[in-house]
Amino acid sequence: MIGIIGAMEEEVQELIADLAFAEKKTVASMDFYKGTLYGKDCVIVKSGVGKVNAALCTQILADFYKPEALINTGVAGSLDAQINIGDMVVSEDAVQHDMDASAVGDPVGQVPRMDVLAFPADPVLVKKAVEANQKANPDIQTFTGRVASGDQFISGGEKKKQIQENFHARCAEMEGAAIAHGAYLNKIPYVILRAISDKADGSVQMDYPTFEKQAIVHCVRLLRELIPML
């Protein structure tokens, strides 16, 4: 069983439409759709936006469906000048950029009393996702690296600079590291797939409505190629 989480309806609706023999189960106001997707047993869910929703969703998946792998799909803002709108970032690890217990001696981003700062993605899933994206979306660039997550929409300025300096992350969004945290604690291999919808540079009002739809198209194409490989 493969668990697929998207934060927003737009990120999962095409996948749910492609799901065969779907069964729906609602837990914590989240709808979980279980069935066959591109030849594999999958469960697809819209978590809602933010780290709390994402963490709750991950734990429900772990408890009810026992997935062998977790995939988080969605959009993000670029933190790297090389990464353009439309490009794809595949996580190597994920960190919570808004976790800050530095006043008691922990590095910024470190969850106190956890044994890692950033939660590592599964290297096999990362490798397959890169290969799948290069086949599915040959017209865009594919990057691997760190995903930075927090309960903030990053749109430039000092916050973007801090995340870049503290974490050297490739992109910023609002759910991935919480899913990674849940996957780590439950010992479930995971990977985050992020299509770039904006540059996190203050131009979001112009970029986001225009490019979000195309970014989601890239994610869906990637998953159509990736799921049969798992």
From TrEMBL:
**PANTHER family from the UniProt entry:** 5'-METHYLTHIOADENOSINE/S-ADENOSYLHOMOCYSTEINE NUCLEOSIDASE (PTHR46832), 5'-METHYLTHIOADENOSINE_S-ADENOSYLHOMOCYSTEINE NUCLEOSIDASE (PTHR46832:SF1)
Cited InterPro entries: MTA_SAH_Nsdase (IPR010049), Nucleoside_phosphorylase_d (IPR000845), Nucleoside_phosphorylase_sf (IPR035994)
Put simply, this protein is called: adenosylhomocysteine nucleosidase
Q: Name one Pfam family in it.
A: PNP_UDP_1
Native species of this protein? Mediterraneibacter butyricigenes
Q: What class of enzyme is it?
A: hydrolase
From the UniProt record, give the pathway where this protein acts. Answer: Amino-acid biosynthesis; L-methionine biosynthesis via salvage pathway; S-methyl-5-thio-alpha-D-ribose 1-phosphate from S-methyl-5'-thioadenosine (hydrolase route): step 1/2
Which residue numbers delimit the Nucleoside phosphorylase domain?
2-227
Q: Gene3D superfamilies, alphabetically?
A: Nucleoside phosphorylase domain
Question: What Gene Ontology terms describe what this protein does at the molecular function level?
Answer: adenosylhomocysteine nucleosidase activity; methylthioadenosine nucleosidase activity
Q: Please state the Enzyme Commission number of this protein.
A: 3.2.2.9
**Can you quote a single GO CC term?**
cytosol
Give a GO biological-process term: L-methionine salvage from S-adenosylmethionine
For this protein, the record's NCBIfam families field holds: MTA_SAH-Nsdase, PRK05584.1
